[in-house]
Structures are given as C-alpha cells and as structure tokens.
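Hi,

I'm pasting everything inline rather than attaching a file, because the server keeps stripping attachments. The sequence lines come first, and each chain or strand is labelled.
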Amino acid sequence: MTLDFLGTLQRTHTCGEPRSPQAGQAMTLMGWVNRRRDHGNLIFLDLRDRTGITQIVLDKEISPEAHAKAEVARPEYVVAATGVLRRRDEGLANPNMPTGEVELVAHTLLLLNDARTPPFSPAEEAIANEEVRLKYRYLDLRRAEMQQNFAIRSRVAIAIRNYLVSQGFLEIETPFMTRSTPEGARDYLVPSRVHPGHFYALPQSPQIFKQILMVSGFDRYFQIARCFRDEDLRADRQPEFTQIDLEISFPQMATIFAVVEGFLRAAFSAAGVELGAEPFLRMTYDQAIQRYGIDKPDMRLPAMVDLSAELTAELRTTLKIDPALPVLGFTIPSVGELSGTARKALLGEIRSGFGDCGLDMLDVSRLRTNPSLTPLAEAIEARLSAEMHRFNGSAHGTEDLAVVITPKPGTPTMWNYDPQWIYKRVGGLRLELARKFADRHKLFQQTRSAADFKFLWVTDFPMYEWNEETKSWDAAHHPFTSPHEEDIQSGALVNDKGAVRALAYDVVLNGTELGSGSIRIHRKDVQQEIFRSLGMSDEEAKERFGFFLDALEYGTPPHGGIALGLDRIVMILAGAASLREVIAFPKTAKAIDLMVDAPTTVSDQQLRELSLRVTARS
RNA sequence: GGGGACGUAGCUCAGUUGGUUAGAGCGCUGCCCUGUCACGGCAGAGGUCGCGGGUUCGAGCCCCGUCGUCCCCGCCA
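And the predicted assembly:
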C-alpha cells in the first residue's frame, strides 16, 4: 500500500461540525477511521477527530479511485476526505449521532498514514484493563471519554486563571529545583553535577516561595503548580500532581474563603455545573470529629448523633456499656427493610470489623422485645429522626438503617491518648456502610446539579498533634501556620499545647479534601516560638529555615493562603474514580510510567558525572 | 512495610470433582455484498493458561514461591 502526501490540502471543517444546513457545500475532513463498513461497491467510513464523527460515503460509481483507497483503509488509519456534504435521504439518517442527518460523499480520499491493529479499539465503549491502557496511553486518550475529561480539565484551569486574574492575582512561577526540607513527605531528589554530593529537591509545594513573594510585596499570588511527593499512591494520590496555589497579603480568613468559593464557582460553571451564590458551610475541626468522626465530613449523609444522654448508668450496666464513654448512632437512609438473616449477617460483619477494640453494636429493633427497654429504643429513634429531619426534612423510618455503637466496659489503652478514637472509628463505619449501600440510597449519584456537590470549610484545626512514638508534639499542619492570636496571648503555646488552635482550614467536597490552607506566621518572634515549641533549637531552625527567618525580619506583611488539588477537582467533575482518568500520563500504584517505562537505571557514565554510586540494587 | 482482589487468544471473559485436541464474543486475515452506522454472510488464522518450582499416572484447576495491575491500611508536616 502506498500512502498519500498531504500536499497543500487543508482541513476545512472538523468531524463534529457538519450539519444539514451545510448540505451542498464542498469540504475536506481529516481524522482517524473510527469504523469501516464495506458493502462491496459502497463503503462507509466513520471519520473521527476530537470534535466528533462524520460518516464518509465512498461510492465506486462516483469515484473508483477514492473507493479503492477506502478498501485498504483500516481502523485508526489517518485519512483526508474531500467531497460534498449531502443531506441523508428519509430513513437513512442516524438520530444517535449529532452529524447523523448528513454524510460526506467523497470524490477524493487520501491515506495520510496507516496504523497497526491496535491492542484495543478507541472506538469501543468497553474498556481494556488499566495495564494495557497505560502502556498504549496514546490510544486510550483517543477515547471520547478521555477526550472529554481533558477538555473539562482545560476549561476548569482556564476558568480559575481568569477568575483569579480578575481578582487582582499575579501568576508567578517558582522553581522546580529547590532545597530539600526534611519534614513532611519524602522529597524527590535531583543530584547536582557541579556540586558533587549535593542535591536539589523537587517541591512538595511552593509554600516557602509563595510566602517570600508576600514579603516581596506581590500582594496576591497564584500558580497552577506541579508538586512532587515521594509517598505511596492511592486512587486519589499521584507522586506528581497539580495544585492551584495562592497566597494573599493582609487577609482575613473570610477573604481567602471568598476567593476560593469564587474560583470554584467559576470552575464548576466551566464544567456545566452552576453552584449558586450562597457561601459554603463552615464547621470547626472539633465539630467535624464529633458529628462525622473525620476531618473531611461527607455531607451527603446524615451526621452521627451522640446518644450518651439517653443511656443512664443503670441502662449502661444492664446493656454492658462503658459508664463514661460516648454512645454514638447514625442512620444510613433508604437501605430498605433488612430480613432477619441479613440483619444478623450485617451485625456479625460490623462486630468482626471492630476486631478486639472494645466496640459493639446495639440492635435497636431487639430492644423493643423487652418492655423495660422500649422507652430507650423510642428515645434513640427520636434522636435519629431529629437528625434525619435536619438532614433532608424527613423522619427516620423503617427504610433507614439505624446503627448504634456502644463501647464495652473497660477502656482500651489506645483511647488514653486519643479521646477522639471512638468518634473516628464510628465515623469510619458510617462511610463504610454508606458505600456498601450506595446502590440503595443513591445519595452518591451524580446528576451534575449543584445539589450533588456538598462543599464545606473545616476550621480551627489543632496546632499540635501528640506523637506517641517520640513522646513529643508535632505540627499538625506545617510549622508556618499561625495559631489563634488569643491562644498565643493566653500562654497556651507553652502550657497547653493540645488546646492551641491553628488558623488553618480545609475545603472539603463530598468527603474529599480539595485543599488546605492557613493564615501564616508573619512575625519572627512567633515563628521562633513555634519552632522551639516543636522541640527545634534556635540553631537547628537557623540551619533548616535560616533564609526564611531572615526574610521574616525585613518587613513581612500578615498573609495567608491555600492550595487546592486541581486533579481532584477535575476527577469529581468528570465523575471519575481515579486521578489516572484526569492525568494524561499517570503513574501506576508502584509509581511506574508504563508507557515510557520509567524509572530506569542509568549508565555508569551518567552516575560518574554525578559522583554517584549505586550500592544495592534489589 | 502489611492486608485483599485479579492474571487463560490482540481485547473482554468462560473453563464442572485434577482426565481426550483449552472455548465463546469482539477484534484480526481472505472472499462476497450499493444504504450501513456495534452492517451482514462464508471461510480462516491466532494460546509458554503471568513466570519458576512442587504434588500427581495426569495440573489452566491443588501446594509453595515470585512478578505485574488494582483497592485498602501504614505513609502523605
């Protein structure tokens, strides 16, 4: 087969464009052969580009040459078809295609390139396994679904840029090759050739640079920034990812919230979802833990209810419940009536899921079989009903699954240092059961209306976290986060670290953390105080962050900011289950790029230039 | 580092209690077909059952190990 040269031929329309009003026009379409239907002397080619598909007709009587080319054309060949657009006759139109009322009758067909038989067809709805998709990523990306995902991604990014620029932000790039700060996630390192034994690090975030840009007077900075973290992957975690990173001088928290809500509205609008003007809900960290058992509550479900007040000391003794610890209940709506065996199986599953951690499930319906416990059952139902009513205006009914978790007498030792443990554990069960019954309650379905997207600000995170292993206090956020001013004035910074609240906040969507930010420390004395409180000596602080402490001394304005994961936003908007669906060339769970086959070993020559030696290969 | 699921034709998958020559659909190749659009018809090719070892008269199936992909825990200030 001989391929044709393009010559001076130009594409006049895209494959998604042709419509019946253009019938009679001469046009040239170029694209990939999506499907070929050969009827002997009549051949149909579906020609595809990223805008859509148009049917090309090759009639031997009209053009034997073009027809002959179509006979050898195969799926994924790249062709150019020139001819006249024709309105299809009655009964020949295809109502399932946007271009289905017309077809291009070709008098010339150029075979611009051939293609090997692909391992899977980009035309098929059914998807090959992910290993094959990632190896042949260029074919996978041809699929309409992936083309749509990246169209959304591009539109979202541009909408955010436009919005932030309209609000007076400057986009400024910060370095990829920077300094390793051995705190937090592991760094990806880049060896220096010029300085043997010295390494750059790829940024985990532009954190320190953007704060220094505030010192530099840039006032409002943003960047759609690539970040790198050498940690194990998850469906929603890739080693390199993109953040919408911003920082503002002279802000209140509300200033930052308004900017973020503004650009998220713009981003969602760009993806066809109008969010409405009301501000996002807000909740403190303590409320989130107590009501949802997690710092990123999924508001698409009712909250947990603290039933402790209903359980008197007497009832606790009867039911073998710890006298002091909280009793928590929650409802999974619209699960449907469970049969006796199904209920028993679920109970067994939940109990075995707790292992030996001292929790048990109270079967509320069985309480009613004992007259002396009926009032308790009714009280519990009433409390759960009240939460259901707050949630969606309905009452708790028999269609809903009521779960009440009780701590057994005797406190497991792990609770001694984490009083929130029981809340977190029950909150985890709430999500687990909600996922299990997602098909029944349908609260996780996306209809692309604003109601499907439950945004939330979580505020007042604790400043410090007790590290049981090292018996010391760690920074819960990062050490540049400012505590509440009154917690500095009260002396809690020194006397009561566990009570110090940070001016830190997360923006949460449907149980996913979209972004995290804080008001920063702008005074050197406070910054030094925080470093000391973390057990870092002044010398050590100077060694690690000296350049930053220096910068703080030259007139640093109050400032704060936030960073949101662009990939996660697009993932949710695309209805995708994994970041790999919205990152063009992602890594596998073992951080491998299957298409280019990275990482690889390098030559001894390269290692010598970098003064490196590999001591162990496993 | 730990737990779980999966791995059979290019792709998606079936394969009974361990028993003759490992199957299906799609795709692919050839031939036929002027109104299909998941075109149709006829014929055909295509397999190291992920890899290595073991048990057995006999292994796709059982056992051990190993590799790969996915999900989760740890980790991700």
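Chain A has a mean pLDDT of 91.

If the labels don't parse on your end, tell me and I'll reformat.
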